[in-house]
Amino acid sequence: xxxxxxxxxxxxxxxxxxxxxxxxxxxxxxxxxxxxxxxxxxxxxxxxxxxxxxxxxxxxxxxxxxxxxxxxxxxxxxxxxxxxxxxxxxxxxxxxxxxxxxxxxxxxxxx
Amino acid sequence: xxxxxxxxxxxxxxxxxxxxxxxxxxxxxxxxxxxxxxxxxxxxxxxxxxxxxxxxxxxxxxxxxxxxxxxxxxxxxxxxxxxxxxxxxxxxxxxxxxxxxxxxxxxxxxxxxxx
Lengths: 111, 115
Hints:
heterodimer, A: mainly beta, B: mainly beta, four-stranded antiparallel beta sheet, 11 strands
């Protein structure tokens, strides 16, 4: 099956710093989403981005589908950005099936 | 975005008892819902696909007799952990989407502790 690899596994930042999280996937995808899991376990939808670039405030994401990777950019990080960031995909030709998750990047932002 | 609601958010039960977890799509109909399990400091692992009006599809290694799934309506799927044991303690979370190639949304999750 498709493999989803996220890097780095852990990231420690000072408040105000910028960061880039990467998601590589081993096959073509129909769907790619980025999530932030907060300390209570809730998965917060950040981006639905099977291709292209999107921005939402301090966060932006780019997916280059032909090269099978996606990037999540966090600018001017804040302590509230801390948590685990997951990338998840649905393989092409498997529309409607479940998202397959990477192992996540744990981000810690200190003041 | 769509709203998926999960209840309860936290439950503690005794070993040998059963626990039911509900997952509702509040503002859309979902013919398919998904159940995941997450152990501490690990990723989400798909347990099963819940199909409205038909049997659930379980992932390899997931005991269908232990994790009973019922998807009786287009807005409700339930996961029942039967004869729970301490090793079933985990975070269970459901997901649904409006259509095939659309954004998926997740419930708040249920933290199950079996004592």
